[in-house]
Amino acid sequence: MDEREPVVLTRPDDLDEATVVARAQDGNLDAFEYLVEAYQDRLFRLAFRMLHDRGDAEDVVQDTLVACWRKLPLLTNVQAFSGWLYQMATNRCLDSLRRRSGHPEVVQGPETLQTTADSFTGPGAGGDPAREAEISCEIDGLATALLTLPPGLRACWLLREIHERSYAEIAATLKVSEQTVRGRLARARAQLAEKMSPWQ
Amino acid sequence: MAIDETIPRLGCGRSIDEVWATIKQPPTAHENGCVQCRTARASLAKLAEATRTLRDNDAVDPSLQPRHAVKDAIMNLARAEVRRGSLLPVYRAEQGGITISEQAITSVIWFGADALPGVRARRCRVHPGPDTADAPRSAGTSDIAVNLRIAVASGTDIPGTAELLRQRITSMITAHVGLNAGAINITVEDFYDV
Amino acid sequence: MSEHPLEARLISSHLIADLAARTALDTPGVLRLEPTLKNLFTRLGKGTIQNLRRTDTRTTPARHDGVFVTVHNGIADVQLDIATDIAFAALNVAQVVREQIARTISHTGLIPGRIDISVLAIEHPPTATAARPPRPL
Q1: CATH architecture of the domain covering A8-106
Q2: What is the ipTM of this complex?
Q3: B176 vs C88: CB contact, 8 Å cut-off?
């Protein structure tokens, strides 16, 4: 509708994230839009690997970022922004899984496997079809194994291993101790490793 | 919660965590001799490799991005619920008057601050000046007071920079808002690296 | 006024809203009218846009985006929300807009009543780079 291209302020890309967050807190839409762009893909990847459903993952992204806009003024520590966002997204994923829990978990069917394989354009394949097939097989094996983990373990593993969040932050997100996070991670790794190549 | 903290152990007594922690190093004498450790090392190494592949691939996989409609919906809502701060009465005539939003004044202040090297303006509050807070003058402008939080580049001369910033804000508010700035309180809340 | 009672009744609040909007947009330093749902909600309590359309009482309020007009007893009240160009002093722009709107209303035969202007945003014009020189008012 309204073309809003203000050049009033230094572009958010040239500022540190804490400053962009502070300006979004004060209602600056360009700063907020920058944050949406910076985080929507990451949150989508987290939600998709948690929920294995594009629509549900998009709902999580949208709910999280709308809640972010509404609650931003209440965030006291701008440095904690990304942890706060991950926390909201993770909790929404877990809620979504709880709502689903009446139904059995749908493990990746062949159709989605194909889609993932087709869309693969990742680094390292170098156009080598054999290597590409190997990589997509590796990804699908892990992604499928991931869906067999209980949600709490899955969240722990994704936050740590894929999104590289700190133990302290994951503990705060899941409202458990850091020791519990370490325990869950170890069990998640053991279960995943075993699913991918049974060792007994 | 005890079970949550349990770290799985192999038959030989070593924990998965111990094996994981040294996975990038050559196997120890025990690991070389222990079948369970060798198998666990091999399968954890495979997991580590697959994890890296998944992480790198997902990060660039265009099919793992939300549709544009998601961002559009978020931004439309944010626009509809845009926060302007309070409306400051700045002029009162016999009938009606003029108000300026705190956010409009804040963006002028940010604009002014951005032009100063070593300063990043963050949260900003604008209040009616103390003498006009109760009753804006019947015809004429009222003063405003500013509270601004900033981050400065490490190594910045803080008192000197704050003084420059104050002068800048005063002249920006005169030129672009049309008001007189009274007290301008600046709080340095953070440093950033250049 | 009393000489043209019929005329006065013909001039609807919608027309005044139109005129006020056009007058504001013609004033140097006004970038746009600034509609937000929130403005609407705070001004009308819990009314939604649809409710608003049905509130066609005798005072017949009219809302353009960013303009809110009521006409009663030949008096027009206007509330206008604008964004101004940072090259101008916002307060001066708003004062000129008030005066111009009062004049425009007088030309219709109605009496200008309460005229409230809110400057909600101060920005650079969309297409401008830093190069645009400030025009004196």
Answers
A1: Orthogonal Bundle (1.10)
A2: 0.87
A3: yes
